[in-house]
């Protein structure tokens, strides 16, 4: 079987996957989701002219000549707190005591901050007065309605990944919900007769099911909703049942194991039976050469991609990072990735030509502002501990490896 370049394999998956149909999601549940359309403001921010400082709303002209040595003394005609508009008026020779965020009173055109005022005795009629110790120009400390967002502004574009400040922008223009692609619900199924969950005794020939815990945790870390589908034996009927049932409630499925060349690899067989366009790929990468892919009918016209990852623990996660995660991100409406970052090899990343790109588990350090990577341990596809010590995969192209000090691209494991 000729090996498929990774980019071609990924393109094949991405072509078969569409962003999930948009839904309204309350802001508190929308972090990390992707806007399905542009957002146009129906409210101005701020909604009214207000003061940026605690202090005194004045007519700027009345502060002419004010100084520490010779304060200008003006009459206090009221107090304007934030949260209510008292409808106060500031006439010549008058001030209103005002709090940050409070509406600007009519007649005032500036604010003198409270730090630029001193107590002054009441006037002859017993009215309260204040001494201002600095001149202000018209407009000083005045925040104008709409000077963050005007009605009709496009505040966020379709495709924006909603981080905390973007959620704040939606809240500030009065939206309680964001119209987004929903968070994909992704089922995880382990396959293999040899698998035993942690916590149960191991009989001869059995191994621990570690892939499921890895994939469930990685999915959650990547912002997907992970659904534990348990483990199925190497039995076609059992795998088929598990996949069909899960397709009814999940947006995508990740399986591990059962896609290689062995006699008992049920996933590739079942997928080929369930979906005529199912693909069983041999990809030109190491680790994670085999991969199976199909789109199942989830009912109601829902197309549910199945990402058949290999069983070896390192292969399984590498395959997820290089192939499954991009497809799931596309479901979520997000850029598929993975993006590569520039680094420098801190030691030789040796290899021999074999027609494959190698993804080496590495650990990064920042030295003089440069990311320097070194192997994080044994590079066998069964050696999960090196992956646990890694923060990135170094992309080592086919050939004789990368010399110490040479540039290397890395993909963050995140
Ligand atoms: P397979 O792809 O099913 O041929 O499995 C390849 C290797 O990965 C075998 O050594 C399996 O025992 C191992 N393996 C498969 N599934 C898991 C799993 N869930 N956790 C840990 N190792 C696994
Ligand atoms: Mg197996």
Describe the structure.
There is one protein chain. With 414 residues, the chain is an alpha+beta fold. 18% of the residues lie in helices and 32% in strands. It is built from seven helices and 29 strands. It has helices at 6-16, 164-172, 211-221, 236-247, 266-274, 313-331, 384-388, and strands at 23-26, 34-35, 39-40, 50-51, 55-58, 72-80, 94-98, 110-113, 117-120, 129-132, 142-143, 154-156, 177-181, 185-191, 195-196, 207-208, 225-232, 252-256, 279-282, 285-286, 290-297, 303-309, 341-345, 349-350, 357-367, 370-375, 392-396, 401-402, 407-412. Strands 8-5-7-6-10-9 form a six-stranded mixed sheet, with no helix packed on it. Strands 17-14-18-22-21-19 form a six-stranded mixed sheet, with helices on both faces. A hairpin with an 8-residue loop joins strand 9 (117-120) and strand 10. Helix 3 (211-221) runs parallel beside helix 6 (313-331). The longest helix has 19 residues, at 313-331. The protein is elongated and about 105 Å long. It starts with 5 loop residues before the first helix and ends with a strand. The relative contact order is 0.13. The chain binds adenosine monophosphate and magnesium ion. Residues 191-192, 234, 257-258, 311 line the site of magnesium ion (MG).
Q: Tags for this entry?
A:
414 residues; alpha+beta; 6-stranded mixed sheet; binds adenosine monophosphate; binds magnesium ion
